[in-house]
Amino acid sequence: MDAAQWDERYRASAGGVWASEPPAVVREIADTLRPGTAIDVATGDGRTALGLSARGWAVTGVDFSAEALGIAAARPGGDAVTWVRADVHAWEPVASADLVVSCYLHLHDNAAAIARVAGWVGVGGTLVVVGHDVENIAAGGHGPSDPAILYTPELLRGALDERFRIERCERVVRGTGDAELRGGHTHAAIDTLLHAVRVR
Q1: pLDDT grade, residue 198 (50/70/90)?
Q2: 92 partner at 20 to 30 Å CA-CA among 26, 63, 99, 121?
Q3: Domain spans of the chain?
């Protein structure tokens, strides 16, 4: 989907598409870190950016949908986040960040896109990527059905270079209590998680 299609989806959503809380695994990792600066890539209607901001992070939320960003900015705490309308392929932050998070960004150049956003992490900072795994199709979980845009641990691991130490890169099962969509979903889902630290 392009930006116009996402704008239409958000316009039709009556208040937002995604759940109100960041994914549980993102909360778990972020809660082990000292809050600093964070970039939420493909922030959508803001659940991860707002969740991090509420935990003390200075957050920039980036998305190419103006409608999504409008919903995010209007939510409680939305005025504490810097919202940027931009494409991940073109935007560059003014400074590196202590934490870069990408949740459910699925593109035909996934590895290149993740490598690009990894470059936004400062030395000593953390990268967290979570998205639908290719095995999610057979599992019947919510998400894209095109395997060409889905993740595997091998794909995400291969997106990083020697500047990063990988803490975790694995498939994780996300239960119905950790819903991606507003209103929840009835099936467990299989995601790929990458958690890495930039060491140089």
Answers
A1: very high
A2: 26
A3: 3-198
